[in-house]
Amino acid sequence: MKAAAGDKDGSVPKTMKAWVLDGPGELRLVDKPLPEPGPAEVLVRVDAVAICGTDVEILTKGLPAWIEGGLPFHKNYTPGHEYMGTVAKLGASVDEFKMGERVAVEVHAGCGRCERCRMGMYTSCLNYGLNYGDKNKGHRANGFTTDGGFAEYAVNHVNTLVHVPDGMSDEEATLIVTAGTAMYGLDVLGGLIAGDGLAVTGPGPIGLMSVAVGKALGAQPVILTGTRDSRLNLGVRLGADHVINIRKENPVEAVRRLTGGKGVHYVMECSGAETALNEAMDMVNRGGRICLAAFPGERVPVDLAKLARNNIYLFGIRGEGNSAVHRAAALMAQKRFDAKLMHTHTFPLEELPTAFRYFRERIEDAIKVVVKVSR
Amino acid sequence: MKAAAGDKDGSVPKTMKAWVLDGPGELRLVDKPLPEPGPAEVLVRVDAVAICGTDVEILTKGLPAWIEGGLPFHKNYTPGHEYMGTVAKLGASVDEFKMGERVAVEVHAGCGRCERCRMGMYTSCLNYGLNYGDKNKGHRANGFTTDGGFAEYAVNHVNTLVHVPDGMSDEEATLIVTAGTAMYGLDVLGGLIAGDGLAVTGPGPIGLMSVAVGKALGAQPVILTGTRDSRLNLGVRLGADHVINIRKENPVEAVRRLTGGKGVHYVMECSGAETALNEAMDMVNRGGRICLAAFPGERVPVDLAKLARNNIYLFGIRGEGNSAVHRAAALMAQKRFDAKLMHTHTFPLEELPTAFRYFRERIEDAIKVVVKVSR
Amino acid sequence: MKAAAGDKDGSVPKTMKAWVLDGPGELRLVDKPLPEPGPAEVLVRVDAVAICGTDVEILTKGLPAWIEGGLPFHKNYTPGHEYMGTVAKLGASVDEFKMGERVAVEVHAGCGRCERCRMGMYTSCLNYGLNYGDKNKGHRANGFTTDGGFAEYAVNHVNTLVHVPDGMSDEEATLIVTAGTAMYGLDVLGGLIAGDGLAVTGPGPIGLMSVAVGKALGAQPVILTGTRDSRLNLGVRLGADHVINIRKENPVEAVRRLTGGKGVHYVMECSGAETALNEAMDMVNRGGRICLAAFPGERVPVDLAKLARNNIYLFGIRGEGNSAVHRAAALMAQKRFDAKLMHTHTFPLEELPTAFRYFRERIEDAIKVVVKVSR
Amino acid sequence: MKAAAGDKDGSVPKTMKAWVLDGPGELRLVDKPLPEPGPAEVLVRVDAVAICGTDVEILTKGLPAWIEGGLPFHKNYTPGHEYMGTVAKLGASVDEFKMGERVAVEVHAGCGRCERCRMGMYTSCLNYGLNYGDKNKGHRANGFTTDGGFAEYAVNHVNTLVHVPDGMSDEEATLIVTAGTAMYGLDVLGGLIAGDGLAVTGPGPIGLMSVAVGKALGAQPVILTGTRDSRLNLGVRLGADHVINIRKENPVEAVRRLTGGKGVHYVMECSGAETALNEAMDMVNRGGRICLAAFPGERVPVDLAKLARNNIYLFGIRGEGNSAVHRAAALMAQKRFDAKLMHTHTFPLEELPTAFRYFRERIEDAIKVVVKVSR
Question: Are strands D284-292 and D264-269 parallel, antiparallel or unpaired?
Fold first, then answer.
């Protein structure tokens, strides 16, 4: 049985256990003071948190903001951004959520005052990372530029919270943000619509979720490409009409064949492979659209003539956005797909390093590895 | 010569002169303490403020929020929302504006956390008016739900400020927000584009600005309808290709004739006349769009069958929105139209009641009456 | 067993049975020569055709085009626009469809050369009805401005045909165009998205289909209003989360209650009731959207102030449009809802007058009455 | 004085002079029979035709369709796609244009029946090039897949014609299609709006037109980059606020400096340089948009991580599209910019090879070289 998330009088402990990252690979479990929610913020008692590929990058290389900005590693920073939990304390003016309600998170709260935020593009906030000191513009990227969820408690802006549907397990709820990222990709593509063809390249968590969400929205056919049959089979269970093992078959030829030579309307690129964009341009029809949810680390050769000649539109995303996480939560509440299939392993918070190892080394075919905060 | 807006050490007076409205018609000039800008807010030393038709309604009937919400009149509330001035003090985290810069305002700062604000539709904020007490969601409608500009100083959220272009007079700068409303109307219509026909019905300030902005964006033809030749002639100077005095000519027939029987693509309805919407539906072509920037006080008969059969889209706006005020300021900085033509009278702040009388009774053909704060 | 739709050598009979309308109420079954498909056209052997409310209006009052245009009734005109059948002959250049394939229709083929068609808004074609004589611009509204489907054969432009999914009955396939109209309504509303609230007012065929399609797209909640419990119960089976019998409960209050006071994001108005638009404006939240798929015959009082103050967008549609019929067919192929539930009665072609009577008088609670062409 | 374009009785000569291309470099002036306009087509008496960079590619390498499709060179094919002239004969059903009216052309007429055409994306027609034989889907790309304007007469679908404004010279009218391409690029970018920053990279004809059109639409600032001061100076006269000679200054640093470190909202890439896209991604702000109107011949290294991390949207275009040519014609009719500045040389039709040489070798700083058909 769980401990109370916060009594009616708002009592919560003064300290909490939290993992902190001091430098590449330097992950420590410490006791930290509980953070205090400000106006429009909520203190969330973390119940479960999933590991994302980006967490591995942060653990091994440091935060993108540190690297891009040349900043030294923070001391005492807590990563983790795919978490869910229970409302434990309300900041001033919050009535969107109630004490004791279960919530899942999205990553980005924009500053609300730059040009992009004013357009609703808060994941492209021009004040990214500015949430401290004299220049506190209020931007937050949970687990990236602020403390995240590998801890017993975390503070969240109300804009980064969605209600967890009744009857959904903690583990499944950690996947809402992943589904939201897939949904956002399909959204920025101009609105995937029922009957349009969708190819998803790369069966990682976002790719698998793109299959599930695309199918739920009526895409037809939904084609998934990848290298491992176990992942592709999971794609079928999540809604793929066709899967292509690119070790056995040329994916461009296969997509062309499966669509009667026409190609698909949309490609969600989730592999990060060097050749993926050029292949995607051969998979879409003229006027088609491609979303990059993954990307190679280095510059890669791209056939820009094909992009221009075929009126192809290319979109890049940095995670979820708009109301995509809310929409994804709605689809999951309606049980349009079985996200739980992606959850493979669970560890207690204390065993986070082991959890990371399972995820990184894909031990026992690990996909989504969840850390539960036992109490 | 003007007094300093605020010394480098930020010194401003402790009190200011301000008009306050205690009830319908009960306008008093008082001394008030200077308001203090909070985080993301700026204290503006008001230099000039124009009178809008809505101000007259507020003065005589009270605020819409009071009427709709059944609230009693505030005591000590200061109206006025078409103002400009000089940055006199910066709240925490503000670096978007500098001390001493000239700024003009827009009316609405959304809460930034409701569904509409998150989409960028902050003038449709679902927390409209909630900027006080326990439920302070941060929504502000300057001069409507918060103190406005008929005073020496006013506090503004940075989202409601734009830079005043160099070389633009204070009087002209008070018109930026009106141009922004016209721009927003043309925007929500789906993007007026060069070469499309535009009819503007009603040559009040928003109608005249719609002519100017529509022409600047390349609309062709731009047709203005009204009852007074002096206003219509002004419309010509602001860019109308054709004007129609509806006392002399049937406006629907005239629009049809001027467009070779085809009708226009867009109608901006700025008259509030009872028959205006039905006439607008006869002016637009099939698939055309109509924006209501004005409306009758009572329910009026509307031919909905025509709307459905002709695939007409109808949009209502509540003032400016999106980045429309910024866009309008850019066009005015580029001198695409001569907004100054609409400014007819100036009075000192002390003579606000006289200024209201000129505006309301259209004395000497008054259009935009501006109150200057002399120092 | 059905006769061949057309032998491989394209042989079809020289004449066919067809109902023709000479004037209001003057419906006759005659023998007509078979029409010949031109370039980009297909001859369809009609297998089944459903009766629509508009057919009743045409039968009793004449075609809108006749009434609006003041034209006399055509002699020999064949109504009927919700039909499906089998490809019996291909016009020049057609390879989009093959002999013997089953197809369902949509109503409108635009001229392809006016401004609206060039934008993709072919149901708003500016050359509506011009498909004869010197001014043959190629516009076709099947069963409205050209001969329709109450006959053994009908000619269709390829743009008005969709493939019927395998395993779908003829009767169900006649409902694709109705689902397409519902889909188009949800589309022009700006894209209904998963998790948004939808109220559908009026449980006629388009209203019921709007429930089904809205639910399939992830709307939440889907609320249906009406006067007859049998229809409302059918709405539940098609996906409504809540139904409101407006004889027993105020629909505005009910929608507000069911949405926690927030209202819905979208209203599809399918009742044509005089008060429906004003009620819809009280059902949607600020910035919400309303689509009129039905409308009262006379002008009705509308509260335009509410529309403007609440930034409400109002859209009118004239049937299906864009790719909505294709999308609807895709959802039905994927069995996202059970359209068959709406089909209540079947009659042979010869008994069309009886079929009309069942539909019009709602005998045995008739909803969709289908006429089958027996061979 | 010009000869009649066609007498009132429609008399035109039986033959005409026309340049034909038999193979790479094999350009001959021949006598050809006059083509006959079909339904929805117009015979245009060509008065002037400009040379485009693509013409040079066709002349030297052959048509893209030949190369991509592996087809042999047509014999007797007439290139040329930037022409204007006078209506000399009307095909069946044409009343959009009258005999003797002056018209300019756009390149693409879509088939009107594929998915993209039905969406209004006719330049992405899925039946590109299919305008002959059994598969005549009606697609036309004037001067590419059908005979073009290096001739005395040419046939055009009405969808590819716009009226030439009164008082505009023949030479200037040949530039409408170029302005239309620039306009389309700014359109697909999501609608350049007043006040947004625009960088145009590459001062060729489309780049210069992008400067002119962007400025006319209110972009601020408009920045042009290039290598030759003469072209950059011309850019200033067409509306550039700033020009950057990339031989003297790093263009990315310059754009950043000129925008106060913020970058621009849009980049129109018109240089085709290998590094252009990567530089463009450093010029736009987060969430910004880039349009490729030019492209390198070979695959080039692209930093896709930057594209994804910064939510950049990348669009490719194949020329004009939507109503962009109509919009451009409207702006030119309103004299919003002086397109004539780009016209540098004129030759008679007989001297087409010399005209090509001037254009290709940039003799006397040639920009737009026009061939006039003298009579």
Answer: parallel
Distance CA C239, CA C255 (A): 16
Residue among D374, D370, D373 nearest D51 (CA): D370
Tens of pLDDT along chain C (375 residues) come to 344 455 444 589 999 999 999 888 889 999 999 999 999 999 999 999 999 999 999 998 877 666 666 566 667 889 999 999 999 999 999 999 999 999 999 999 999 999 999 989 999 999 988 877 777 898 999 999 899 999 999 999 999 999 999 899 999 999 999 999 999 998 877 667 788 999 999 999 999 999 999 999 999 999 999 999 999 999 999 999 999 999 999 999 999 999 999 999 999 999 999 999 999 999 999 999 999 999 999 999 999 999 999 999 999 998 898 889 999 999 999 999 999 999 999 999 999 999 999 999 999 999 999 999 977
C-alpha span between A216 and A329 (Å, rounded): 13
Structure tokens at D305: 């991580």
Structure ipTM? 0.93
Q: Using a CB-CB distance cutoff of 8 angstroms, which residues of chain C are in contact with residue D95? A: 135
B336 neighbors D218 (Cβ within 8 angstroms):
yes
Read off the pTM.
Answer: 0.94
Nearest CB neighbour to B327, from listed D193, D326, D336: D193
The candidate with the shortest Cα–Cα distance to C215, out of C203, C230, C228, C200, is C200
- In this structure, the dihedral spanned by the alpha carbons of residues D247, D253, D259 and D265, taken in order and rounded to 10 degrees, is 90
Report the alpha-carbon distance of residue A69 to residue C139 in Å, rounded: 60
Among A93, A118, A135, the residue with its CB nearest the CB of B93 is A135
Q: What distance in Å separates the CA atoms of residue D99 and residue D42, rounded to the nearest whole number?
A: 9
Cis preceding-peptide flag for A203 (omega within 30 of 0): no
Contact B330 D218 (CB under 8 A): yes
The token pair at A159 is: 């804009």
Tell me the three state secondary structure of residue A327: helix
Give residues with Cβ within 8 angstroms of A341, minimum separation 6: A234, A237, A238
Buried b (16+ CB within 10 A) or exposed e, D331-359: bbbbebbebebbbbbbbebeebeebbebb
At C145 the three-state DSSP class reads coil
d(CA B131, CA B305): 41
End-to-end CA distance of chain D: 8
Best mutation target, A304, A307, A312, A315, to test chain D (most D CBs within 10 A): A304
Cα–Cα distance for residue pair A155/A147, rounded to 1 Å: 8
Contact of B267 with B196, CB cutoff 8 Å = no
Picking from C220, C222, C265 by the largest number of A CB atoms within 10 A of its own CB, the best residue to mutate is C220
Q: Compute how many other C-beta atoms are within 10 angstroms of the C-beta atom of residue D285.
A: 22
Angle at B51 between CA B48 and CA B54, to 5 degrees: 140
CB atoms D304 and A295 under 8 Å: yes
In one-letter notation, the amino acid at residue D372 is K
Decide if A308 and D302 are in contact by the 8 Å CB cutoff. no
Nearest CA in chain D to C157: D113
**Residue A164: beta bridge partners?**
none
**Inter-chain residue contact B302 with C301, CB threshold 8 Å:** yes
Locus of tokens 């004005």: B294
**C-alpha to C-alpha distance for C1 and D350, rounded to whole angstroms:** 69
Q: What is the C-alpha separation between C18 and A364, in angstroms, rounded? A: 68
Q: Where are the alpha helices (DSSP H) in D36-193?
A: 53-61, 64-69, 115-119, 170-173, 176-188
Interface of C with A (CB under 8 A): 183, 191, 193-195, 216-218, 220, 323, 326-331, 333-334, 336
Chain B residues within 8 angstroms (CB to CB) of chain D: 183, 191, 193-195, 216-218, 220, 323, 326-331, 333-334, 336
